[in-house]
Specification:
The complex is a heterotrimer of chains A (about 325), B (about 450) and C (about 325). Chain A is of the alpha+beta class and about 325 residues long. Chain A contains 13 helices and nine strands. In chain A, the strands form four sheets. In chain A, strands 1-5 form a two-stranded antiparallel ribbon. In chain A, strands 3-4 form a two-stranded antiparallel sheet. Chain B has four domains: about 170 residues, Rossmann fold, CATH 3.40.50; about 70 residues, Beta Barrel (OB fold (Dihydrolipoamide Acetyltransferase, E2P)); about 70 residues; about 70 residues, no CATH class. In chain B, the strands form four sheets. Chain B has a six-stranded mixed β-sheet with strand order 1-14-13-17-15-16, with helices on both faces. A four-stranded antiparallel β-sheet of chain B has the order 2-8-7-4, with no helix packed on it. Chain B starts with about 20 loop residues before the first strand and ends with a helix. Chain C is built from 14 helices and one strand. In chain C, helix 3 runs parallel beside helix 5 and helix 10 packs parallel to helix 13. The interface between B and C is large, with 69 and 43 residues. Strand 2 of chain A pairs parallel with strand 1 of chain C.
Chain lengths: ~325, ~450, ~325
C-alpha cells in the first residue's frame, strides 16, 4: 500500500514541478507574434509555390501584415479576390493585378521542326541546353524534357507527346512563374489572361535571321514585320528578327494572324478573321492556324459575331478600367 | 610509381588503333572557317572584312583583352564572310571564312625544318612572342598560355610541369608529338624554363607510353633540372591539379586557388612544341596534330592539320564514318564534347576526334542508386558525386555549394564508375554552373 | 544507310560493372560457404536456401507489380542476395513456413516499404532474421550438431558462443582450426569462416567492396576482446585465444564481410565506413559479453545502420587540396 502511495505522490510532485518549470520557460522564451499573421496565412492558398517572391505563404503573410504599403505584394495563385479579402481584413489598400497565364512561346512541333540528332543524356532541359543546340537545328525552341513540368506545383503544364512541346492548362495555371524560371530557353511568358482561354501570341522565340529560321523550323517567326505594320494598337514590335505582341496592348483584333506568312502567330479560342479576297492566296497561314484550333471556333460559329462583339466590349471595359 | 592521392579510375585506354600511325600532314583545305572564340576568355576581334586578301600566318583577329588570344590565318586567300555560323554543337558563333588561293606565307616566318636551339631572348620578349602567336592550352582547356605564364605579383613559380600524360583514352596526338617532335619539345621546355625563371622542370608521362618516356629521357639527358617522370596509368592523371600532386606532392587549394599558389605552372606537351615554333621560328599557332580514331574507323590517323579545316575532311581521310548510330566527339571519350555538325572546323583545342559507333554510341539506361559509394571512391577531388547530383537535381544550390561542388573538375570518373549508369555528372555540371553564377553575383553585389 | 547522331554530355564510356553483375558477384562469393554448409548439414540446407531465395524473389515481384506498380526489378538479383543471406542467418532445420515468414518480413517490411533497392535504411536480411529471433526464439536458437566425422562435442546443439555465455566452456578447449573450417554449431552460413574469407577475397578482387568495413569490424572486435582479456587476467594464452575465439565463433565474419557491407545500409565514404565498422565491432562484443543474447552481430549491425544517415551527413570524405585545420 505504501508503495502505491509513494508512487502516486512522486508522480504528482514531478508533474507539478514540470508544470512550474514549463510555465516559466514559456514566459521567458515567448515569441511575440501578431495573431493576424495566422489569419492571413489561412486566407492564402497554402501552396507554398513561391510565386509571390517569398519562400512560402507564411513569409508572404508576415510581409502583408508588417508592411504598411502592400501594393507591391501580390499572390498570383489566389488572385485579386484573395488579395481583396486580405486587404479588407488588414484595412489596407488592395493591390490589383490582372489575371495572367503562362504561355509557351514555341510552335516547333515534330513535323514543323525536324529532328537532326538524338539526345542521350539526362532528360533535363538544363542539361541539354548547356551542352548544345538541341535535337533540332533551332537554338531557341522548346527542348521538351519537361523542366517546367517538374517545376509546376499545380500540374498545369505538360509536354504534349505528339508535338514534343510544353503546353499550359490555362484552367490550372496560377501564373506563379515557377516554369518561367525553370525554362533555360526563356520560352515561357506570363501574358494577360483573356476569358475562355483566348489568346493571340507569337509562338516563337528565335532571334535568328529569317533564312536560318526557315531552315530549322517551318513555324518560326522570320521577323518580316508584316504584323507590326498591320497592328492598329501598337501592340506588336519586331526586335532582333523576332515579333512580340504586348498582351496589355493587344485587343484580339486578329489582323496580324492573317498577315503572318509562317503561321507563327497563334490564335486560340477565336476564329480567325475571314480572309480578305486580295490576301486570300497569299495567306496560307490562316488555314493551319484554323486547323490547329478547330473545336472551339466551330462550336461557336453561329454565335461567333456576338462573341466577338462581347469580347470587344470586355476589352474596352478592361482598357478603361486600366486607364482609370 | 608516382600518382595522384585520391580516387581515380582505370578505363581501358584504347590507344592501340592510332598509336603506331605516324603524324601525316593533311592536304591544304580549300575553305577554312575560323571561330573568333577558340579559347577561354573574351572572343578575339576580327581584323579583316569580306573581300580582304590574307596570307598564311597573318593576324586576322586580335585578342580583345588580356584574357584572350590572337588568331592567325591558317591559309592564304580571300575572306568570303565574317558571319554567325553553327559550331560543332550547332550553336551560332562568329566565324571568319577564307577561301584558299595557293599557300603564301607572311614574311618573317622560318618554315625550314632546322632545329634552332639557341634562344637569346629575355623573359618578357619570350612572353610577347607567345602572346602574339596566339598560343592557348592545346590539351583541350584552351587557356591562353601567355596568361598562364604571367606570374601574378607576390607569387613565385618553382616548377614547370610539362603535361605529356594524355590520360584521356583513345587519343594519341600528344604521344605522337612527343615521339616525333621531341627535339622541338625539349627546346620549348628550356624556353619556358627561361621565361618563368625556374630551375626545375618535370615532363610527366603516363606509363602506357614507355617509348615516349625513353625517347624524351635521351633527349633531356644533360639538361640541368629537367626530369622525365613516368606516372601510373590512372585517369585523370593528366588533370592539372592531379598532375601537380603526383609530381610534387603539393595539393592546389580549392577555387579560387591556382597552381601558382603551390609554385607550379603546367603546360601541355603539344603547347610546348607550339611555344618553340612561336619563339624560335616566329610561327603563329595555325596548325596542330589531331587524332582521328575509333573502334570501327577504317584508318585511324594522327593528322597535322591547319586550323579551320572541317571535321568532315579529317573524318574522310580516316576512312569516313562507320554506318549506323554514331557519336562523334571533339576530344576523347571521358571529357570530349559530342558534335552534331561535322562541317564545323578544327580549333586550337581539338586534340582528337573520337568516333563511337553502334552500342558504344548509346548510354546505358539509368537504374536506381544502390548507394554503393563507388562514385565517392572514384572522385579525384574527394567529393560525393551521388549527393551533389541529387541535390543539384533538386536545385538546392546552398547545399551543393557547402559540399564543395565548385571543386569538381568534371573529369567524369563518377559517372564512368556508376554501376546504375546514373547521369551523375550531367546534373553536377548544371549545379556547378548555377553555383558559379551565384558566387559571381555575390561578388558583384559586394562591389 | 544514313548515320544517326547521338549526343550526350561527357563521359561517353562506361564501366562494365552493373548492379546485376555486382549482385551476381556477391552470390558467387557466398557459394563456397554454401557448399561447406551442405557438406556439414546435408542437402536440406540447399532446400532451405532455395525456399528462402524463391520466396524473397516472389514477394519482391508481387509487391513491385501490384503495390508499387513500378518497373520489375527482380532481374537486378538483389532479392536473390537477400534470400541467400537470410538463409545463411537461420539455423538448419527451421520449419519451412518460418523461413517464408522471415522472407516476407525481410522483403516487404525491410526493403519494399522504403521504396526498394537502395532506399532501405536497414539490412533486409537482418530485419527478417531479428524478427524471427524475437517471434520464434525457441526454433531460432535450436542448432543441430554438424553431421561430420570427428565432430565430438559435449554440448551439441549449442553454438560456441551460447556455450561460452552459459559458462560451460573453456576457450582454450575449443578446436579453433575446426571452427575455422566449419566444424561448429551455428546458422547455416556462419560456420565456414575459411569459405567466407575466400569469398571476401573474391569480392575485393572484383572491387565489389573495399576492405574498410570488414577490417574495421573484425579488427575492433579483436582489439576489444584483447583488452577485456587483459583486464580479466588469468592465463597468458587467453590473450590470443579469447580474441580468436570471438572472431571465429558465431556470425562475426559473415556479418562483417557480407551483412555490414550491404551498400544501401552502410556509409558512403571510407572515413565513415571505418567509424561504422568500429561501432559494429564494439557493440557486438558488448552484447556478446554483457548482453542477454549470446550473439550480437545482427543487433549491432542494425543499430549502426540507424547511425548511417548521421555519419553520411557529418563525416565527409577527404577533400583534395583542403588543408587540415
Amino acid at each position: 500500500m505504501s508503495i502505491l502511495l509513494f508512487t502516486v505522490l512522486t508522480l504528482c510532485v514531478l508533474g507539478v514541478l514540470s508544470a512550474v518549470v514549463l510555465y516559466f520557460v514559456a514566459r521567458k522564451f515567448k515569441v511575440e507574434e501578431d495573431p493576424r499573421i495566422d489569419e492571413v496565412e489561412k486566407m492564402l492558398p497554402g501552396a507554398n509555390c513561391g510565386g509571390c517572391g517569398f519562400a512560402g505563404c507564411r513569409a508572404m503573410a508576415e510581409a502583408l501584415v508588417k508592411r504598411d504599403d502592400i501594393s507591391e505584394l501580390f499572390c498570383p495563385v489566389g488572385g485579386g479576390d484573395t488579395m481583396k479579402a486580405v486587404a479588407t481584413y488588414l484595412g489596407k489598400a488592395a493591390p490589383e493585378k490582372e489575371p495572367r497565364v503562362a504561355t509557351v512561346r514555341c510552335g516547333g512541333t515534330c513535323e514543323k521542326r525536324p529532328r537532326t540528332n538524338t539526345f542521350d543524356g539526362a532528360r533535363s532541359c538544363a542539361v541539354a541546353s548547356s551542352l548544345y543546340v538541341g535535337e533540332t537545328a533551332c537554338a531557341y525552341g522548346c527542348l521538351g524534357y519537361g523542366d517546367c513540368v517538374t517545376a509546376c506545383a499545380f500540374d498545369a503544364i505538360h509536354i504534349n507527346p505528339e508535338t514534343g512541346i510544353a503546353e499550359v492548362d490555362a484552367e490550372k495555371c496560377t501564373a506563379c512563374g515557377a516554369c518561367v524560371k525553370a525554362c533555360p530557353k526563356g520560352l515561357i511568358e506570363l501574358r494577360k489572361k483573356w476569358p475562355k482561354g483566348r489568346a493571340i501570341y507569337v509562338s516563337c522565340m528565335s532571334r535568328d535571321k529569317g533564312a536560318v529560321v526557315m531552315k530549322a523550323c517551318k513555324a518560326g517567326c522570320i521577323g518580316c514585320g508584316k504584323c507590326e505594320k498591320v497592328c492598329e494598337f501598337g501592340a506588336i514590335t519586331v526586335q532582333n528578327n523576332l515579333a512580340f505582341i504586348d498582351s496589355d496592348k493587344c485587343r484580339l483584333c486578329r489582323k496580324c494572324v492573317n498577315e503572318c506568312p509562317t503561321g507563327a502567330i497563334r490564335i486560340i479560342g477565336l476564329a480567325p478573321l475571314p480572309k480578305a479576297p486580295k490576301a486570300a492566296p497569299a495567306t496560307p497561314a490562316a488555314a493551319p492556324a484554323a486547323k490547329a484550333e478547330p473545336a472551339a471556333p466551330k462550336a461557336n460559329s453561329a454565335a461567333a459575331k456576338n462573341t466577338v462583339a462581347e469580347t470587344a466590349e470586355k476589352v474596352e471595359s478592361v482598357v478603361n478600367k486600366k486607364e482609370e | 610509381m608516382k600518382t595522384f592521392p585520391i580516387g581515380g579510375i582505370h578505363p581501358s585506354d584504347n590507344k592501340q588503333w592510332s598509336k603506331s600511325s605516324a603524324i601525316e600532314a593533311m592536304p591544304l583545305p580549300d575553305v577554312v572557317t575560323i571561330p573568333l572564340s577558340q579559347h577561354i576568355g573574351a572572343p578575339a576581334v576580327a581584323k579583316v572584312a569580306k573581300g580582304d586578301k590574307v596570307l598564311t600566318g597573318q593576324l586576322i583577329a586580335e585578342a580583345a583583352s588580356f584574357m584572350s588570344a590572337n588568331i592567325h590565318s591558317p591559309i592564304s586567300g580571300t575572306v568570303t564572310s565574317v558571319d554567325m555560323l553553327p559550331n560543332a554543337q550547332g550553336l551560332r558563333q562568329m566565324m571568319i571564312t577564307i577561301k584558299r588561293e595557293g599557300d603564301e606565307w607572311v614574311e618573317g616566318i622560318d618554315r625550314s625544318d632546322k632545329l634552332v636551339t639557341e634562344c637569346n631572348l629575355d623573359s618578357a620578349e619570350i612572353l610577347a612572342r607567345i602572346k602574339s602567336a596566339g598560343i592557348v592550352g592545346m590539351g583541350g582547356a584552351t587557356f591562353p598560355t601567355h596568361v598562364k605564364l604571367s606570374i601574378p605579383a607576390g607569387k613565385k613559380a618553382e616548377f614547370l610541369i610539362i603535361n605529356g600524360v594524355e590520360c584521356e583514352p583513345y587519343l594519341t596526338s600528344d604521344y605522337r608529338t612527343m615521339l616525333e617532335y621531341g627535339d622541338r619539345l625539349i627546346v620549348g621546355v628550356r624556353i619556358l624554363m627561361k621565361a618563368l625563371d625556374v630551375k626545375k622542370a618535370f615532363i610527366g608521362i603516363e606509363n602506357n607510353k614507355p617509348d615516349a618516356v625513353a625517347h624524351l629521357r635521351t633527349l633531356a639527358a644533360g639538361i640541368e633540372g629537367l626530369e622525365v617522370v613516368p606516372l601510373k596509368v590512372r585517369y585523370p592523371q593528366g588533370g592539372e591539379k592531379q598532375l601537380i600532386a603526383a609530381l610534387t606532392g603539393r595539393q592546389v587549394p580549392p577555387p579560387p586557388g591556382l597552381p601558382i599558389d603551390v609554385g607550379a605552372v603546367v603546360c601541355n606537351a603539344s603547347t610546348t612544341v607550339a611555344v618553340y615554333d612561336a619563339v624560335q621560328k616566329n610561327k603563329p599557332l595555325i596548325e596542330r596534330v589531331v587524332t582521328v580514331t575509333g573502334k570501327h574507323v577504317a584508318q585511324p590517323k594522327n593528322l597535322l592539320t591547319r586550323m579551320g579545316t572541317s571535321i568532315s575532311a579529317l573524318v574522310a581521310v580516316a576512312g569516313g564514318l562507320p554506318e549506323g548510330d554514331v557519336k562523334v566527339l571533339n576530344g576523347g571519350p571521358m571529357m570530349g564534347r559530342a558534335m552534331i555538325n561535322l562541317d564545323s572546323p578544327v580549333t586550337k583545342g581539338c586534340s582528337g576526334i573520337t568516333i563511337l559507333d553502334g552500342r558504344e554510341a548509346h548510354r546505358n539506361a539509368a537504374a536506381v542508386c544502390i548507394k554503393c559509394a563507388k562514385c565517392v571512391e572514384a572522385c579525384p577531388m574527394g567529393l560525393e558525386p551521388f549527393f551533389l547530383s541529387k541535390m543539384s537535381q533538386r536545385k538546392s544550390w546552398d547545399v551543393v555549394e557547402a559540399n564543395r561542388i565548385t571543386d569538381c573538375i568534371e573529369c567524369g570518373s563518377c559517372q564512368y564508375t556508376c554501376p546504375a549508369s546514373l547521369p551523375l555528372l550531367d546534373f553536377i555540371r548544371t549545379g556547378k554552373q548555377a553555383v558559379m553564377g551565384i558566387i559571381r553575383a555575390r561578388a558583384a553585389a559586394k562591389k | 544507310m544514313a548515320n544517326r547522331f547521338f549526343v550526350s554530355p561527357s563521359p561517353h564510356i562506361h564501366t562494365e560493372q552493373t548492379t546485376q553483375k555486382i549482385m551476381a558477384d556477391v552470390i558467387i562469393a557466398l557459394l563456397p560457404a554454401l557448399c561447406v554448409s551442405i557438406a556439414v548439414y546435408g542437402w536440406g540446407v540447399l532446400a532451405m536456401t532455395a525456399i528462402s531465395i524463391a520466396s524473397c524473389v516472389l514477394f519482391e515481384f508481387l509487391i513491385q507489380k501490384y503495390l508499387l506498380r513500378g518497373e520489375c526489378t527482380i532481374s537486378n538479383l538483389s532479392a536473390v542476395v537477400t534470400g541467400l543471406l537470410l538463409a545463411f542467418n537461420l539455423p538448419y532445420g527451421l520449419p519451412w513456413w518460418i523461413v517464408i515468414i522471415g522472407a516476407f518480413v525481410a522483403i516487404a517490411i525491410g526493403k519494399m516499404t522504403f521504396g526498394g533497392l537502395g532506399k532501405n535504411p536497414f539490412n533486409p536480411a537482418l530485419v527478417g532474421r531479428v524478427f524471427l529471433l524475437i517471434a520464434y526464439p525457441a526454433q531460432m536458437t535450436t542448432f543441430p550438431a554438424p553431421k561430420i566425422d570427428g565432430f565430438v562435442d559435449a554440448y551439441s546443439g549449442a553454438t560456441p558462443l551460447a556455450a561460452a555465455k552459459a559458462g560451460l566452456v573453456d576457450y582454450g578447449s575449443y578446436d579453433m582450426l575446426g571452427m575455422f573450417n566449419g566444424a561448429m554449431a551455428g546458422s547455416v552460413g556462419e560456420i565456414a569462416t575459411l569459405a567466407l574469407l575466400l569469398g571476401f577475397v573474391y569480392l575485393l578482387w572484383n572491387k565489389v567492396i573495399t576492405w574498410h568495413i570488414p577490417v574495421a569490424v573484425l579488427g575492433s572486435m579483436a582489439v576489444f576482446a584483447f583488452v577485456v582479456a587483459l583486464f580479466r587476467g588469468g592465463d597468458a594464452s587467453l590473450l590470443y585465444e579469447f580474441p580468436l575465439f570471438h572472431l571465429l565463433a558465431g556470425g562475426a565474419v559473415l556479418g562483417a564481410v557480407y551483412m555490414a557491407t550491404d551498400y544501401s545500409t552502410s556509409p558512403m565514404n571510407h572515413r565513415a565506413m571505418l567509424i561504422y565498422g568500429v561501432g559494429i565491432g564494439v557493440l557486438t562484443m558488448c552484447i556478446r559479453l554483457w548482453g542477454s543474447y549470446p550473439e550480437g552481430m545482427s543487433f549491432a549491425i542494425l543499430i549502426m545502420n540507424s547511425v548511417v544517415p548521421l555519419l553520411n551527413k557529418y563525416v565527409k570524405p577527404k577533400r583534395f587540396g583542403l588543408k587540415k585545420k
